[in-house]
Structure formats: C-alpha cells, structure tokens
Amino acid sequence: MASPRLETYCCPNRDAATQLVMEFQPEVFCGVCIGSASISLLLTILQLLPKKGQSPRKMPKASSSSTILLLISICDILGGLGMIFRSSVWLGFPGFIANISVVNGTDVWPSTFCVGSAMWIQLLYSAGFWWLFCYAVDSYLVVRRSAGLSTIVLYHMMTWGLAVMLCVEGIALLYYPSLSSCENGLEHAIPHYITTYAPLLLVLVANPILFRRTVSAVASLLKGRQGIYTENERRLGTEIQMRFFKIMLVFVICWSSNIINETLLFYLEMQPDINEMPLKNIRSAALITWIIMGVLNPMQGFLFTLAFYGWTGWRVDLKWRKREIPWESMSSSTVGENTYPAPVNYQSNIHDSKKISTTDSQQTDEAISMLSEGNTSSDERLTRSSPIYQGW
C-alpha cells in the first residue's frame, strides 16, 4: 500500500508508532499486499483490453479526458507493480530487510532498496492523485469548451512536475542530514507527511466542488441544445452526476483508511509510552486500519476502471487492427456495440445556416459524450437525440 510510513521505516532510528505497524505480522501484511495488488493489476488490464464483438467508436476528435483516464489507470498499474515487487523482496529475503535496522551498517543496498521502492510507490500514486484532479478540471473546462488535446501538455507538466517535486522535497527533508540521523524529531517527519497527503486532500476537497459545477454546466448545455429539457436530457445529466459520484466513492473507500491510520499513529507518537494499557484500543485500531490499507490501496486501479467504464466483460480481443489506437478507442468505448456517428462531410448543397447550427450542436454533443464515455444508455440517448443523428 502507499503510506509515508514506508519511507519512515527506512530510518534505523524510526519512531515507535512506525515500528509498531511495520513489524506487526509482516509476512501476513506483505501477503495481503501482494494478493490485493495482483488481483487489481490483472482485472485492471482485463478492463482496458479491447473486447470481442465491440465496435470502436469513431470520435470527431480525440478527447483529453479519455487520455487522462488512461493515465490514471497506468499510474495505478505501475504503483501496484511497485507494491508487488517490494512485498515479494520483503517476504523472500527477510535477512536482507533486517539489515535496514542496523545503525551505521556497511551494507547500503537494504536501505537503497527500502528508499527506492517506497519512493516509486509514493510517486506513482501521488501522480495518480494529480491526474484525478486534472480530470475534474478538464471535465469542467470541456463543458465550458475551454479544453482540448492542447491542454494535456499543461496537465503533464503540472502532474509530473508537482509529483516529483513534492516527493523529492519530502524525502530530502525526512532524510536530512543523513539516513542514519532521520526521525530524530517530528520536524523531519511532518513535512514528509504533508507533501505525501497534500494531493490526496486536494482531491477530497476540490474534486467534489469541480464535479458539482460541471454537472450544473451540463444541465445548462442540455437545456440550450434544443431549447427544452426533456426526460432523456434529465436522465443523461443524472447519469453523468452518478459517474462523478462513483469516482469519488471509490477514492474515499480506498484512501479514508490511510487518513484514519495516520491520525491514530500520530496520536500514539505524542504519548510517552505507546505500550500503555489505556492505549490498547488505539493500537488495535491502528493495526486494523493498517491491514485494511494493504487491501484497499492496491484495489483502486480496478475499482476506478469500473467507475470510468463499467464492467467491460471477459471476452478479450487481442487481434491487431490496422489504423486503430486500442487504448484511445477503449477509453471512449461502451460495453455494447454502439458507435458514435462519424463527423459529417457537408456538401455544397446544404445551407450555411444549417451548417452552423449543426456544428454547434455537434460541439455540444462532443462535450457531453466525453463525460459519459463508457455509459451505454447515455451514449445511445445522446446519439438518438442529436440533430446529426436525426438528419441521417
């Protein structure tokens, strides 16, 4: 799982609270992490692969939102691989890991592995948090018609730049002036925890606000498309709102245990002796949430694909298709065999006024379809109610 305690454990003089959770049934905990991460990894890849009998939808232009959804899944996959590798080494080479606790040891490889694997996991999941924030921003900009593929470059700069900067800064402050002298006081640990949980708290606070504003903007778009707000438009807006709710629900389920666990451990660190009897219930709660983190954190990747696309099925189609980008097609495809109408090639016998109105409606439909990617019923209603569809 992803926790700043992983980096803290690399300090030979680690605090008592970190010692408590990291040395509580390490074999069981690592086994739980490997099992959860492996299941999530396989199911996530299965979700993203193209399926047999599924017709790829032809979008008039590529969607930055679909690219962001793919990048979130990639971050989860790579973070899960980091968890599997770290836990496997932990289980397979207990003597190697034991050398981390040796103060002023001559073997630097155990500490190097500890720091490197912990940074890999933290960096990938932090980047996933930033990409999820970018998705909320992009969804709002899409309905305002202020986003496009050009903005994906800015998202890359912000996401990877902030993720690397915060990760390096937190690690540098934690291990300053050296690995053997870190964790001598909270002044080393607190900045590290802040840089780790800052993007997580940003998603928890900012994304619901952005999603709510996006839903309001979608309602205005649907009302203005034909001047009326029918039952189909109302249902489409509700389904987009439900999709945002599912995304936030998955995020809260997977990461609320981290916040609870960190709160309990910080409380224990403030106590003179964490082994006192009055603190038994708090210690038990911290250990329970620690195991829960090992289960839920890696499962985020698979649960997010369910929130993004729904269940896409088991029938995988591994045949290579000419002139097709499977990942981009997958991120904007539905479970059924419905297709999005291709861009219309207007001939000279169509009036200019009709061309302008149809283009404006097409832009509105594109914006709505980007937010309802992967939802079969929404795409069908959108397509059938579109003036482009009716014209055909």
From TrEMBL:
Residues 371-392 are annotated as: Disordered. InterPro entries: GPR143 (IPR001414). One of its GO terms (cellular component) is apical plasma membrane. Gene3D superfamilies: Rhodopsin 7-helix transmembrane proteins. The keyword Membrane applies. It is a multi-pass membrane protein. It comes from the Eukaryota. One of its GO terms (molecular function) is L-DOPA binding. The chain crosses the membrane at residues 28-46, 67-85, 119-141, 153-178, 190-211, 244-267, 287-311. Keywords: Cell membrane, G-protein coupled receptor, Glycoprotein, Lysosome, Membrane, Receptor, Transducer, Transmembrane, Transmembrane helix. It is found in: Apical cell membrane; Lysosome membrane; Melanosome membrane. GO terms for biological process: melanosome organization; regulation of calcium-mediated signaling. Interacts with heterotrimeric G(i) proteins. Interacts with ARRB1 and ARRB2. Interacts with MLANA. Belongs to the G-protein coupled receptor OA family. Receptor for tyrosine, L-DOPA and dopamine. After binding to L-DOPA, stimulates Ca(2+) influx into the cytoplasm, increases secretion of the neurotrophic factor SERPINF1 and relocalizes beta arrestin at the plasma membrane; this ligand-dependent signaling occurs through a G(q)-mediated pathway in melanocytic cells. Its activity is mediated by G proteins which activate the phosphoinositide signaling pathway. Also plays a role as an intracellular G protein-coupled receptor involved in melanosome biogenesis, organization and transport. This is G-protein coupled receptor 143. It comes from Cettia cetti.
